[in-house]
Design brief:
Order of helices and strands: EEEHEEHEHHHEHEE
Strand content: 25-35%
Strand order of the largest sheet: 6-7-8-3-9
CATH superfamily: P-loop containing nucleotide triphosphate hydrolases
Radius of gyration: 17 Å
Helix content: 25-40%
Shape: globular
Distance between the termini: 45 Å
Structural class: alpha/beta
CATH topology: Rossmann fold
Number of helices: 6
CATH class: Alpha Beta
Number of domains: 1
Largest sheet: 5 strands, parallel
Amino acid sequence: MASARIEAIGLSKSFAGTPLFADLSFSLGAGVLAVTGPNGSGKSTLLKIVAGLLRPTAGTVRIESEGRAFTADETRTAVGWSGPDLAFYPELDAVENLSFFRRASGFSAGDVLSRLDAVGLAQARQAVEHFSTGMKQRLRIAFAGLLDPAVLILDEPMSGLDSGGRAAVERVVASARTRGPVLLAATDVGELPEADQVLELVRRAS
């Protein structure tokens, strides 16, 4: 299967008239793009725009394969995203949460245990409300890869993780980068797995 490709052209985003970033363009096939910059520079907003979770004030994002752009419905399942504000049903355990989200996306429950095993959560049977910060972060990474996405987008993927969790993220990214685009964001690029490209944002004066 041909690798997906992201084309972002002239992206701008403003909130209440205040520009966050303007005229950003990049392209990415199989490989990793690291987005870095200070707090408030728009890293999370940019990743959400690429993921289709926010609309840009101006500009376009095209995700395509073999020269054909994905439809909106295809994009929803072709992009796997995780970020600090991704929350789960606290009364359900990890398997129940991931099974629910797969079914809600129109897929069968599938083998979610292997996805949890990849991030070190295969033995976690308690409700998510009892998870530690690091366990919740591991679950977010598993969620991002839940539908075998063509594009993987991870915002602050190393946040709250111990060495084992960081190694799990490295493995997930290493596998995903051979299949398609991977976008990562962090304030410190040194916190992220090795990238093929780095996009540094700056905080604009209000």
